[in-house]
Amino acid sequence: MKKLILVVVLAIISVGVKAQEKVNWLTFEEAIEKSSSNPKPILVDLYTDWCGWCKKMDKTTYKNNIIVKYINDNYYAVKMDGEGKDDISFNGKIYKYVQQGKSKYHELAAAIMKGKMSYPSTAFFDPEKRLIQTVPGYLTEAKFEKILAYFTKDAYKTVEWPDFEKSFKSAI
Which of 10, 31, 97, 100 has the least C-beta neighbours within 10 A? Predict the structure, then answer.
């Protein structure tokens, strides 16, 4: 009897639960190319392999279906290793991996973070491929939802963050 109940419960769960969506991650160059033919803002998740908070953000914030849908609908999303070794071409310049003693980084990551190497960081570019802002640190789903809305709807151009944050209505 217990096995039958377990089978029925598992069947109900598998029918009733939608498969979790995933962020459609691109390389930086793929996002730039797509944005050239179909302009859209670009979101860049800057991470490293050794960063525990980066891994936590991947397991929580970037797994939230509302966040995933919002990113996929409104951005070209880039997952960029801040210590990646591949050259990246952007705005007529080739950005490279650099190692100086114990310090190692990718030049584009350093440029996006303006030399303040903090992981994770999330960078927002407008559809014209101009950096709007980089937000350092781990972001919970609730905080990230607000930030996404602030940059997606161009509110950042006319509304100060504290005012936007007070009036924001969450879908989470």
Answer: 100
CA distance 172 to 170: 5
Q: Which amino acid is at 22?
A: K
Q: How far is 144 from 146, CA to CA, in rounded Å? A: 5
DSSP code of residue 27: -
Report the length, in residues, of the chain.
172
Residues of the chain with pLDDT under 70: 1-20
Residues 154 and 44: their CA atoms lie apart, in Å, by: 17
pLDDT of residue 152: 87
Strand partners, 81: 47
Q: Hey, how many other C-beta atoms are within 10 angstroms of the C-beta on 160? A: 10
Which amino acid does the sequence have at 114? K
For residue range 37-77, what is the model confidence (pLDDT) as tens digits?
Answer: 999 999 999 999 999 999 999 999 999 999 999 999 999 99
Pull the structure tokens for residue 149. Answer: 């809305």
**How much is the pTM?**
0.85
C-alpha dist (Å) from residue 115 to 49, 110, 136, 155: 19, 5, 12, 26
